[in-house]
Amino acid sequence: TLMYFNTKYFILKTVEQHSQLAFSKITKQTRKNPGIGKDKNCTIRFLRLYGQVQSGLKVTEETYVEQLENPDNPLQCPIKLYDFYRFKCPQGMRGPTDAFYLVPEPVVAPNSPIWYSGQPVNKEVMEQMLTRILLVKDVQEAHAASHISAY
C-alpha cells in the first residue's frame, strides 16, 4: 500500500525512483487547511518528498511533491500508514541511505514491536509490484494530472 501511495502521489514511476526513497527524504508536516466553513481553522498533515520532479524540470531545494492525509477514511490515509510502517521498522533502518521498502518478517505477533527485517525488498519484487500499481486507473490519472500541471 505504501508503494501504491508513493507511486500515485509522489509520482514515482520506476524501480530506481522507489529504490532511492529513504525515511530521511520524506518529512511529515502540518499546515492550515485551506477549506472553508467548519474546517477553516483545522490543520492538515502531509508527507513531503523533496527533489522529486517530472522529467524536463530542474530540481531545486523548493522542488517537492506531497501526500495529504485522508481524515475522512483513516484506513486509506497515507500519513497514518506511513507512521505505522515507520513504527514497525527497525530503528537502525531510518537513515538517509537506508532502504525505504523492507522485507516483512516471516512470522510476527500483532503486538510485536518490529514487523520488518533490515533487508530491503529486492528490485525484481519491486518491479512486479510497480507493474501492477501502474495499471491502476487512479495512478494513471494522477500521473496524467501531474504531467499537465507541470507545464
Q: Name the beta content range.
A: 15-25%
Helices, by number, come to 5
What structural class is derived from the secondary structure elements?
A: alpha+beta
Query: Assembly type of the shown chains?
Result: single chain
Low-pLDDT sequence parts? 53-57
Shape: globular
Taking all Cα atoms into account, the compactness measure Rg is 16 Å
Percent helix = 25-40%
Strand order of the largest sheet: 1-2-3
Q: In whole angstroms, how far apart are the ends?
A: 29 Å
Quick one: biggest sheet? 3 strands, antiparallel
Number of strands: 5
Report mean pLDDT, rounded to a whole number.
84
H and E string:
HHEEEHEEHH
Structurally, how many domains make up the residues?
1
Description:
It is a single chain. The protein is α+β, with helices and mostly antiparallel strands and 151 residues long. The protein has one domain (2-139). Helices cover 32% and strands 19% of the residues. The protein contains five helices and five strands, in the order ααβββαββαα. It has helices at residues 2-9, 15-19, 78-88, 123-133, 137-149, and strands at 26-32, 43-50, 64-68, 102-104, 116-120. The strands form two sheets. Strands 1-2-3 form a three-stranded antiparallel beta sheet. A two-stranded antiparallel sheet has the order 4-5. α1 (2-9) runs parallel beside α5 (137-149). The longest helix is centred in the last third of the chain and has 13 residues, at 137-149. The protein is globular, with a radius of gyration of 16 Å.
